[in-house]
Specification:
Layout (H helix, E strand, L loop, with lengths): L15 E2 L8 H14 L7 H14 L3 E5 L2 H12 L5 E5 L5 H7 L4 E5 L10 H6 L5 E7 L8 H11 L2 E5 L22 E4 L12 E5 L2 H10 L23 H12 L1 H18 L5 E3 L10 E5 L6 H10 L2 E2 L22 H9 E4 L7 H16 L1 H8 L1
Parallel strand pairs: 1-11, 3-4, 3-5, 5-6, 6-7
Antiparallel strand pairs: 2-8, 7-8, 9-10, 10-12
Helix pairs in contact: 1-8, 2-8, 3-4, 3-7, 9-12
Length: 387
Amino acid sequence: MKLAIFGAKPAFSTPLHVGRPNLAASTKLLSAFEKILDSKWLTNDGCWVRSLEGEIGQYLNVKHCIAVANGTLGLEIAAKALMPECGEVIVPSFTFAATPHALAWQGYKPVFADINMSTHVLDPNDVEAKITDRTIGILGVHTWGTPCAVDALTVIAKKHGLKLFFDSAHAFSCSSMYDGRSSGSFGCCEVFSFHATKFFNTVEGGAITTNDARLAQRFRELRNFGFVGDGTHEASDIGINAKMSELHAAVGVINLVEIGSFVTRNFVNYAGYMHGLQHPNLCVYPHEGGNYQYVVIELLKGALSADVLTKVLRAENVLARRYFSPPCHKMVPYNQEAHFLPITDVVSDRVFVLPTGMSVGQQDVDKICELILYCVDNAEAIMEKVT
C-alpha cells in the first residue's frame, strides 16, 4: 500500500471529520427559521426554547431542563449556584480544557484526579485521596459517553459534605453501565453541550438538567443576569447572559426528531470499526449502549505512536484527532504545579478518535480500518520515515 504522506494520492478525496455536524433536512430548518424571523421573537425564553427544554426533559426523564448558550457557560452557572464560596474542586485532567477553565475562570481551584484505565472516567479512590479541608466539590466527566462511577462518587461526596455535579458534554442519550439509569439526573445537576461537533447539536448551545426545583430556578436566574423572574430588573445575584436563542433552539427541536437515525448510523460505524480493527496492538473503546458518537482507539504496544499514526491518517484525509493530548494538567496554566496522574499520562499518550456520524458510511469505515492495520503492521518502517 502506498501512503499519501509519502507522496501517493490520498485514500479519500473529501476529508472525513471527527464531529462533522449532524443536521436534519435543511427544508425543515429553513421553514422554522422563517417562522422565527417573522415572529420577531429571537431570544429571551421564546416558544422554541421552552419547547426544547420540555422535550429534552421528557427525553432524559428529568424534571427540569435549562437551556443555555453553550456548555461552558452551563458549567460556570452550575458551579456558582452550587458553591457560592470558592475553594478546590476535584476534576479529571483527561477532559476538554473547558471543564477546568469553567472553574478557574470564576476563582475555583481545579484539583486533578486520575482516571480508570478501562473506562477513562474518574477513579473514585484517587478522588477521595485528593480531598483536603479546602475541597468543596467534585465535577465528574462522563468521558466518551460513559457515565462516571456515580454511586461511588455520591458516597464520597456525602461523606465529606461536597457538591457533586457532572460535565455531560459527551453523554446525551447515554446510560450508566452500573444500573442502566440515563444521564441527566445524576448528582446535583448535569451539564450538556450541544455544540455543532456533538452528535445531537443546536449549532451552539447546551443545557443544565436537575430534579431539584430550587436549583433549577437558581440556574434560570443566573443565566439571565441574576434577574428574579421575567420583566424585572431585580437581581438575586451577579448573573450572566447565557440564554439560548430561538434559532439555536429550533435546530435542537428539529434534530431531536432525527436522533434515532443519528444513533443508528453511529452504532453501525462503531460495529464496523470493532470488526475491522481486531489486532493485538489495538483496542477499540468498548461502549455499552449510548450514542456511540466517539470511536476511540488505543495503541496498546508496538513501535507506532498515536501522533504519527494520526499524521499518516490525516494525509489520507481521515482527520483523526488526539483527544485529550495533552491532558489538562500539562497545559498552561495548570502545568505550573506538579501532578501525579500516571494513568492519565498513559491513556492520553495512546488514544486517538476516528471519524463517524452521518457523513461516514460502511465503505469509509472499511477503508479506514485497512489503512490503520497496514500502518500498525508496518510501524517500524513508517516511524523511521516520518520521524
